[in-house]
Amino acid sequence: MATASKVVIENGIPLPDKKMRTRSPAFPFVNLETAIRRAKEFYDQQQHHSAPVKVAAKLWGYEEKSSGGLQTTAAMVSFGLLGDVGTGFHRRVTLSPLALKILLNPDSIDKGHAIKQAALTPKIHRQVWNKWGSSPPEATMRYALLTEWEPKFNPNAVDAFIHEYRDTIAFAKLTESDSVASEVKDNGDSKDEIRYIAQIGDWVQWERGNGDLGFPEPKRVKGISPDGNWVYVDGQNGCVPRAELLREPPPEGVPKPDPLPPQFQSPPKIGMQEMIVPLANGTKAVFQWPTALTEEDVEDLKDSLKMLERKITRPAKSADSMEVWKNLNGPSTNK
Q: What is the model's pTM?
Protein backbone atom coordinates (compact mmCIF):
# COMPACT_ATOMS: atom_id res chain seq x y z
CA MET A 1 0.00 0.00 0.00
CA ALA A 2 1.36 3.40 -0.97
CA THR A 3 1.96 5.80 1.87
CA ALA A 4 1.05 9.48 1.74
CA SER A 5 3.94 11.90 1.57
CA LYS A 6 4.46 14.79 3.96
CA VAL A 7 2.39 17.90 3.37
CA VAL A 8 4.26 21.15 2.78
CA ILE A 9 2.41 24.46 3.12
CA GLU A 10 3.53 27.15 0.70
CA ASN A 11 1.70 30.47 0.27
CA GLY A 12 -1.15 28.94 2.30
CA ILE A 13 -1.53 26.02 -0.15
CA PRO A 14 -0.71 22.44 0.89
CA LEU A 15 1.65 20.76 -1.56
CA PRO A 16 1.70 16.96 -1.55
CA ASP A 17 5.41 16.50 -2.05
CA LYS A 18 8.38 18.76 -1.55
CA LYS A 19 9.87 17.37 -4.78
CA MET A 20 7.07 19.09 -6.69
CA ARG A 21 8.39 22.51 -5.75
CA THR A 22 11.08 24.03 -7.98
CA ARG A 23 13.37 26.04 -5.77
CA SER A 24 15.82 28.13 -7.77
CA PRO A 25 19.49 28.31 -6.82
CA ALA A 26 20.21 31.23 -4.49
CA PHE A 27 21.00 34.47 -6.30
CA PRO A 28 21.28 38.12 -5.15
CA PHE A 29 18.02 39.99 -4.55
CA VAL A 30 19.59 43.22 -5.87
CA ASN A 31 22.31 43.83 -8.46
CA LEU A 32 25.83 44.90 -7.51
CA GLU A 33 25.29 48.60 -8.21
CA THR A 34 22.38 48.68 -5.74
CA ALA A 35 24.32 46.59 -3.21
CA ILE A 36 27.25 49.03 -3.27
CA ARG A 37 24.84 51.93 -2.82
CA ARG A 38 23.39 50.14 0.22
CA ALA A 39 26.92 49.62 1.55
CA LYS A 40 27.56 53.37 1.26
CA GLU A 41 24.34 54.11 3.18
CA PHE A 42 25.45 51.67 5.88
CA TYR A 43 28.92 53.26 6.11
CA ASP A 44 27.49 56.77 6.40
CA GLN A 45 25.69 55.73 9.60
CA GLN A 46 27.75 52.90 11.09
CA GLN A 47 31.27 53.36 9.67
CA HIS A 48 33.27 50.32 10.86
CA HIS A 49 30.76 49.26 13.53
CA SER A 50 28.43 46.29 13.29
CA ALA A 51 24.64 46.59 13.56
CA PRO A 52 21.67 44.25 13.97
CA VAL A 53 20.06 43.27 10.67
CA LYS A 54 16.86 45.14 11.55
CA VAL A 55 18.87 48.35 12.09
CA ALA A 56 20.56 47.92 8.71
CA ALA A 57 17.19 47.31 7.07
CA LYS A 58 15.87 50.62 8.48
CA LEU A 59 18.93 52.43 7.07
CA TRP A 60 17.91 51.14 3.64
CA GLY A 61 14.29 52.28 4.03
CA TYR A 62 12.70 48.91 4.81
CA GLU A 63 10.15 48.28 7.53
CA GLU A 64 11.37 46.04 10.34
CA LYS A 65 9.17 43.10 9.25
CA SER A 66 9.73 43.57 5.52
CA SER A 67 11.34 40.69 3.65
CA GLY A 68 13.24 43.23 1.56
CA GLY A 69 15.63 43.97 4.41
CA LEU A 70 16.54 40.30 4.85
CA GLN A 71 16.85 39.78 1.11
CA THR A 72 19.10 42.82 0.68
CA THR A 73 21.28 41.66 3.57
CA ALA A 74 21.58 38.21 1.99
CA ALA A 75 22.54 39.77 -1.36
CA MET A 76 25.26 41.92 0.21
CA VAL A 77 26.67 38.94 2.08
CA SER A 78 26.63 37.02 -1.20
CA PHE A 79 28.60 39.80 -2.94
CA GLY A 80 31.10 39.77 -0.07
CA LEU A 81 30.21 43.33 0.98
CA LEU A 82 28.89 42.38 4.42
CA GLY A 83 30.11 39.98 7.05
CA ASP A 84 27.54 38.52 9.42
CA VAL A 85 27.54 36.68 12.73
CA GLY A 86 24.70 35.07 14.68
CA THR A 87 21.23 34.02 13.55
CA GLY A 88 17.68 35.31 13.86
CA PHE A 89 17.33 38.44 15.99
CA HIS A 90 20.93 37.97 17.27
CA ARG A 91 22.34 38.36 13.76
CA ARG A 92 24.64 41.36 13.21
CA VAL A 93 26.32 42.64 10.07
CA THR A 94 29.38 44.77 9.35
CA LEU A 95 31.06 46.03 6.20
CA SER A 96 33.75 43.73 4.84
CA PRO A 97 37.29 44.73 3.79
CA LEU A 98 36.15 44.32 0.17
CA ALA A 99 33.30 46.79 0.72
CA LEU A 100 35.66 49.33 2.35
CA LYS A 101 38.09 48.97 -0.57
CA ILE A 102 35.28 49.80 -2.98
CA LEU A 103 33.92 52.69 -0.91
CA LEU A 104 37.13 54.32 0.34
CA ASN A 105 39.99 53.38 -1.98
CA PRO A 106 41.33 56.47 -3.83
CA ASP A 107 43.04 54.27 -6.43
CA SER A 108 40.47 53.92 -9.19
CA ILE A 109 42.22 50.92 -10.77
CA ASP A 110 42.34 48.99 -7.48
CA LYS A 111 38.75 50.02 -6.74
CA GLY A 112 37.60 48.79 -10.14
CA HIS A 113 39.34 45.48 -9.57
CA ALA A 114 37.53 45.13 -6.19
CA ILE A 115 34.18 45.75 -7.92
CA LYS A 116 34.96 42.98 -10.42
CA GLN A 117 35.77 40.67 -7.50
CA ALA A 118 32.45 41.47 -5.83
CA ALA A 119 30.56 40.80 -9.07
CA LEU A 120 31.87 37.23 -9.22
CA THR A 121 31.76 36.46 -5.50
CA PRO A 122 28.22 34.94 -5.54
CA LYS A 123 28.59 31.25 -6.35
CA ILE A 124 25.89 31.31 -9.04
CA HIS A 125 27.65 34.25 -10.75
CA ARG A 126 30.95 32.36 -10.92
CA GLN A 127 29.21 29.33 -12.38
CA VAL A 128 27.43 31.34 -15.08
CA TRP A 129 30.57 33.36 -15.86
CA ASN A 130 32.64 30.19 -16.29
CA LYS A 131 30.02 28.81 -18.68
CA TRP A 132 29.04 31.88 -20.74
CA GLY A 133 31.24 34.83 -19.81
CA SER A 134 30.06 38.42 -19.90
CA SER A 135 27.27 38.41 -22.49
CA PRO A 136 25.52 35.08 -22.95
CA PRO A 137 22.54 35.05 -25.36
CA GLU A 138 19.52 35.59 -23.13
CA ALA A 139 17.36 32.93 -24.79
CA THR A 140 20.15 30.33 -24.60
CA MET A 141 20.81 31.18 -20.99
CA ARG A 142 17.13 30.97 -20.01
CA TYR A 143 16.68 27.60 -21.72
CA ALA A 144 19.75 26.12 -20.02
CA LEU A 145 18.81 27.44 -16.57
CA LEU A 146 15.30 25.99 -16.88
CA THR A 147 16.21 22.60 -18.33
CA GLU A 148 19.89 21.75 -17.85
CA TRP A 149 21.01 23.56 -14.70
CA GLU A 150 21.20 21.64 -11.43
CA PRO A 151 19.21 22.53 -9.50
CA LYS A 152 16.93 23.92 -12.21
CA PHE A 153 15.53 27.44 -11.94
CA ASN A 154 11.90 28.18 -11.17
CA PRO A 155 10.25 29.76 -14.26
CA ASN A 156 9.00 32.57 -12.01
CA ALA A 157 12.55 33.45 -10.94
CA VAL A 158 14.75 32.84 -13.96
CA ASP A 159 14.20 36.22 -15.68
CA ALA A 160 14.90 38.11 -12.46
CA PHE A 161 18.23 36.30 -12.13
CA ILE A 162 19.20 36.86 -15.77
CA HIS A 163 18.55 40.60 -15.48
CA GLU A 164 20.39 40.84 -12.14
CA TYR A 165 23.41 38.96 -13.55
CA ARG A 166 23.63 40.98 -16.76
CA ASP A 167 23.23 44.29 -14.86
CA THR A 168 25.95 43.29 -12.40
CA ILE A 169 28.42 42.20 -15.07
CA ALA A 170 27.82 45.40 -17.06
CA PHE A 171 28.25 47.60 -13.96
CA ALA A 172 31.51 45.85 -13.05
CA LYS A 173 32.74 46.25 -16.65
CA LEU A 174 33.81 42.62 -16.75
CA THR A 175 35.07 41.24 -20.05
CA GLU A 176 36.33 37.84 -21.16
CA SER A 177 39.91 39.14 -20.91
CA ASP A 178 39.54 39.64 -17.13
CA SER A 179 41.25 37.00 -15.00
CA VAL A 180 39.55 38.09 -11.79
CA ALA A 181 37.42 34.92 -11.63
CA SER A 182 40.45 32.83 -10.66
CA GLU A 183 41.25 35.24 -7.84
CA VAL A 184 37.81 35.21 -6.23
CA LYS A 185 37.66 33.18 -3.05
CA ASP A 186 34.62 31.19 -2.02
CA ASN A 187 32.56 33.44 0.25
CA GLY A 188 31.03 30.51 2.08
CA ASP A 189 28.00 29.92 -0.14
CA SER A 190 28.75 26.20 -0.30
CA LYS A 191 29.69 25.53 3.29
CA ASP A 192 27.26 24.00 5.71
CA GLU A 193 25.68 26.51 8.07
CA ILE A 194 25.17 25.87 11.75
CA ARG A 195 21.49 26.64 11.85
CA TYR A 196 19.15 27.37 14.69
CA ILE A 197 16.85 24.41 15.45
CA ALA A 198 13.37 25.51 16.56
CA GLN A 199 12.06 24.19 19.87
CA ILE A 200 8.54 24.09 21.32
CA GLY A 201 7.71 27.44 22.89
CA ASP A 202 10.12 29.47 20.71
CA TRP A 203 8.95 32.47 18.70
CA VAL A 204 10.01 32.03 15.09
CA GLN A 205 9.86 33.51 11.60
CA TRP A 206 9.66 31.32 8.50
CA GLU A 207 12.32 32.33 5.96
CA ARG A 208 11.51 30.46 2.77
CA GLY A 209 14.19 29.27 0.39
CA ASN A 210 13.72 32.29 -1.87
CA GLY A 211 14.21 34.70 1.05
CA ASP A 212 10.54 35.63 1.48
CA LEU A 213 9.03 35.63 4.97
CA GLY A 214 6.23 33.11 5.44
CA PHE A 215 4.57 34.77 8.47
CA PRO A 216 3.30 38.35 8.74
CA GLU A 217 4.73 38.37 12.28
CA PRO A 218 6.63 35.91 14.53
CA LYS A 219 4.66 32.85 15.66
CA ARG A 220 5.11 30.48 18.59
CA VAL A 221 6.06 26.85 18.01
CA LYS A 222 3.44 24.53 19.50
CA GLY A 223 4.43 21.11 18.14
CA ILE A 224 7.06 19.10 16.30
CA SER A 225 6.55 16.12 14.00
CA PRO A 226 7.94 12.75 15.15
CA ASP A 227 10.72 12.84 12.53
CA GLY A 228 11.81 16.29 13.77
CA ASN A 229 11.64 17.90 10.32
CA TRP A 230 8.33 19.78 10.62
CA VAL A 231 6.80 22.11 13.18
CA TYR A 232 3.34 23.44 14.02
CA VAL A 233 2.89 27.06 15.06
CA ASP A 234 0.04 28.99 16.62
CA GLY A 235 -2.59 30.22 14.19
CA GLN A 236 -1.24 28.23 11.22
CA ASN A 237 -2.93 25.23 9.65
CA GLY A 238 -0.56 22.43 8.64
CA CYS A 239 3.17 22.27 9.20
CA VAL A 240 6.22 24.24 8.07
CA PRO A 241 9.84 23.10 7.47
CA ARG A 242 11.83 23.23 10.70
CA ALA A 243 15.09 23.96 8.85
CA GLU A 244 13.67 27.22 7.40
CA LEU A 245 12.80 28.83 10.75
CA LEU A 246 14.66 31.72 12.36
CA ARG A 247 14.39 32.50 16.05
CA GLU A 248 12.71 35.82 16.86
CA PRO A 249 11.83 37.74 20.03
CA PRO A 250 8.21 37.66 21.20
CA PRO A 251 6.07 40.52 19.83
CA GLU A 252 6.03 43.63 22.00
CA GLY A 253 3.37 43.58 24.68
CA VAL A 254 2.91 39.82 24.59
CA PRO A 255 3.39 38.40 28.10
CA LYS A 256 5.76 35.48 28.43
CA PRO A 257 3.53 32.37 28.48
CA ASP A 258 3.98 29.29 30.62
CA PRO A 259 6.11 26.59 29.01
CA LEU A 260 4.21 24.40 26.58
CA PRO A 261 4.24 20.66 27.20
CA PRO A 262 5.88 18.62 24.41
CA GLN A 263 3.45 17.91 21.59
CA PHE A 264 4.29 15.65 18.70
CA GLN A 265 2.08 14.73 15.80
CA SER A 266 2.56 13.62 12.23
CA PRO A 267 1.75 16.01 9.38
CA PRO A 268 -1.85 15.49 8.20
CA LYS A 269 -2.08 12.99 5.36
CA ILE A 270 -3.35 13.88 1.93
CA GLY A 271 -7.10 13.42 1.60
CA MET A 272 -7.70 13.75 5.33
CA GLN A 273 -9.69 16.30 7.33
CA GLU A 274 -8.51 17.32 10.77
CA MET A 275 -10.06 19.05 13.76
CA ILE A 276 -8.00 20.11 16.77
CA VAL A 277 -9.79 20.82 20.07
CA PRO A 278 -7.68 22.75 22.65
CA LEU A 279 -8.04 21.34 26.18
CA ALA A 280 -6.96 22.38 29.65
CA ASN A 281 -3.29 22.55 30.68
CA GLY A 282 -2.13 23.12 27.12
CA THR A 283 -3.23 19.69 25.85
CA LYS A 284 -5.47 19.03 22.88
CA ALA A 285 -7.56 16.37 21.18
CA VAL A 286 -6.98 15.68 17.48
CA PHE A 287 -9.65 14.10 15.25
CA GLN A 288 -8.89 12.99 11.69
CA TRP A 289 -11.11 11.42 9.04
CA PRO A 290 -10.97 10.84 5.27
CA THR A 291 -12.34 13.57 3.04
CA ALA A 292 -14.19 11.04 0.85
CA LEU A 293 -16.76 9.06 2.86
CA THR A 294 -19.52 6.71 1.80
CA GLU A 295 -22.92 6.73 3.51
CA GLU A 296 -21.92 3.55 5.30
CA ASP A 297 -18.70 5.20 6.49
CA VAL A 298 -20.68 8.11 7.90
CA GLU A 299 -22.98 5.78 9.87
CA ASP A 300 -19.98 3.85 11.22
CA LEU A 301 -18.34 7.08 12.34
CA LYS A 302 -21.52 8.24 14.08
CA ASP A 303 -21.68 4.96 16.00
CA SER A 304 -18.01 5.27 16.89
CA LEU A 305 -18.53 8.81 18.17
CA LYS A 306 -21.25 7.56 20.50
CA MET A 307 -18.85 4.97 21.87
CA LEU A 308 -16.20 7.67 22.24
CA GLU A 309 -18.66 9.87 24.12
CA ARG A 310 -19.29 7.08 26.64
CA LYS A 311 -15.57 6.51 27.14
CA ILE A 312 -14.91 10.22 27.63
CA THR A 313 -17.81 10.65 30.04
CA ARG A 314 -17.03 7.71 32.36
CA PRO A 315 -13.89 9.05 34.03
CA ALA A 316 -15.43 12.50 34.38
CA LYS A 317 -18.20 10.99 36.52
CA SER A 318 -15.97 8.79 38.65
CA ALA A 319 -15.40 9.43 42.32
CA ASP A 320 -11.70 9.95 41.75
CA SER A 321 -12.40 12.68 39.24
CA MET A 322 -14.78 14.41 41.67
CA GLU A 323 -12.12 14.30 44.35
CA VAL A 324 -9.63 15.91 42.01
CA TRP A 325 -12.19 18.59 41.19
CA LYS A 326 -12.68 19.34 44.90
CA ASN A 327 -8.95 19.60 45.50
CA LEU A 328 -8.60 22.04 42.61
CA ASN A 329 -11.62 24.21 43.42
CA GLY A 330 -11.81 24.04 47.22
CA PRO A 331 -14.80 23.16 49.41
CA SER A 332 -18.28 23.86 48.12
CA THR A 333 -20.05 26.95 49.45
CA ASN A 334 -23.46 25.28 49.15
CA LYS A 335 -25.16 24.43 52.49
A: 0.52
